[in-house]
Design brief:
The protein has four helices and no strands. By secondary structure, the chain is mainly α. Helix 1 packs across helix 3. The longest helix is centred in the N-terminal third of the chain and has 32 residues.
Length: 134
């Protein structure tokens, strides 16, 4: 089954939108948590990393789905776009970052996205489950 480039780009865009939506929802929750409770900087950094991980995983699920094609490359591209877009937004808002740290996080995100995409594409599609043996 050949998948067209436009279909792949469309699914990549859909996954990116899902990742961004989850990030915005989680950011609102983390902001509320920071305002109403006293959380440490370490906990805030941990929540930030978990939020990025969840966004990449859910974005890959939306873009690739169970039994999808080109999962490895789609997941990797999605994660790299998501991470680069996050750092671009941070820079646009005046935040500072270290380039080596940014590259490390983009590569880590790419690895997570690629692994997630590979696993998702190797799962059987949801509609084609095997019947239980009698």
């Amino acid at each position: 089954m050949a998948v067209s480039r436009s279909h792949t780009l469309l699914s990549l865009f859909k996954g990116l939108l899902v990742s961004i939506a989850l990030t915005l929802i989680c950011m609102a929750g983390v902001a509320a948590l920071a305002v109403f409770t006293r959380i440490s900087d370490n906990l805030l950094m941990l929540l930030n990393q978990l939020m990025k991980l969840a966004a990449i995983l859910l974005g890959c699920l939306a873009a690739i789905g169970r039994g999808g094609e080109r999962g490895f490359f789609t997941g990797m591209a999605l994660a790299m776009l998501y991470m680069a877009l996050g750092y671009a937004c941070c820079a646009a808002l005046g935040g500072g970052f270290i380039v080596s740290q940014m590259l490390g996080e983009i590569l880590t995100g790419a690895a997570v996205g690629a692994i997630t995409g590979a696993v998702l594409s190797n799962l059987s599609p949801a509609g084609r489950r095997r019947a239980k043996p009698a």
